[in-house]
User: What shape does this take?
Amino acid sequence: MLHDVGYSPDLVDTGFHSLDGGRWLRRERFNERIAALVAHHSCAWLEAEERGLGEVLAAEFPREETAVTDGLCFSDMTTGPDGQDFEVLERLAEIRSRYGPEHLVTRFIGRAEPEMVAAVQRTQRRLAGSVA
Assistant: This one.
């Protein structure tokens, strides 16, 4: 529920919603892990690099690679902006079409796609009970 809180106009600091959301959660005294999960959700470190904020994100929030981060990516990459269900590749195509071919988010999606797809697949296997 909190992963996109940084899109709120009242919270914009850097213009990068993952980092802005993580910072807001920290200011509001949410658990540090929650703030870091929001700051790094759905391969945000790659988008941070596209924005010139990679070092800032890494310095402010530790990045974890766990079933929880996979699950967060799964939720984000299988749900559309209006709550509709998507298959991960359809969701990635939807994002590309919304931003257009030259946008930095589209560049980021191109870099992040293999990891996002892998995270979704790992979560699907976990949900099916075939991976711990």
Residues 70 and 122 are 7 Å apart (CA to CA). The helical segments are 17-27, 32-40, 44-50, 54-60, 67-77, 88-99, 104-128.
